[in-house]
Amino acid sequence: MIVARTIADVRAALTDRRDGRIGLVPTMGALHDGHRALLAAARASCDTVVMSLFVNPAQFGDPADLNGYPRDEAHDLDVAGEAGVDIVFAPSASELYPSGYQTWVEVTELAAMLEGEHRPGHFRGVATVCLKLFTIVAPDVAFFGRKDAQQVEVLRRMVSDLHLELDIAVVPTVRDADGLALSSRNAHLRPEERARALALPRALATRDPDTARAILEAAGLDVDYVAVVPFDPPALAAAVRVGTTRLIDNVPLEEES
Ligand code: AMP
pTM of the full predicted structure? Predict the structure, then answer.
């Protein structure tokens, strides 16, 4: 497995692999079984699997959230190796955002609702870094998790609006045995908070926004939103705060079209 730290190195590693199908799995590390599912989907359908490992400062509004984001590169490289990743692209922040940087991608309407209301600038950072990764790696397909349903919708819009030549593949949400969707942020939950967080998958399983809100509030969770979202497929989505940890989750209400 090649670990590339620079744009030049990852491009060089890919030059003689362009004849085959290249799959990209963007991650921010602290890898868990949700990421493993994305890597397995990529491995099963691509000749070359590239995993990016980059905690993107541009998508964090709160410096404390960015600084506290779990990081464990040794673990992440082990997981990538076990999953059969060919190339890990793990750049520094200054490699992607050198001094003087000033170009951003805005997906206007889709990025303003729901997560965008509560995390202004978040999707600007996500869209920008993904466009960079798509340009640097030039994959045939990029893999994303259904758990971040709005992210998928924003990126699909960007790919279509900017005529990018890649497919977006979406992998179902991976959950712990107790129903909680896997997330790098779960590491921040104290045992008591984790127990209360189980109200999130329980609430969404009702598939009804009013019932779901009542369950979330009864569990003492701070609800940022719980709503039926007009994505493909439509989903019941929610964001809650448990102590200082913010969790998002959703359940599809129909099959994808
Ligand atoms: P992150 O490292 O949190 O930015 O996530 C990287 C990718 O993994 C994104 O496409 C996420 O949607 C996806 N992902 C995160 N958690 C899960 C999960 N529990 N199941 C499936 N995909 C996930």
Answer: 0.97
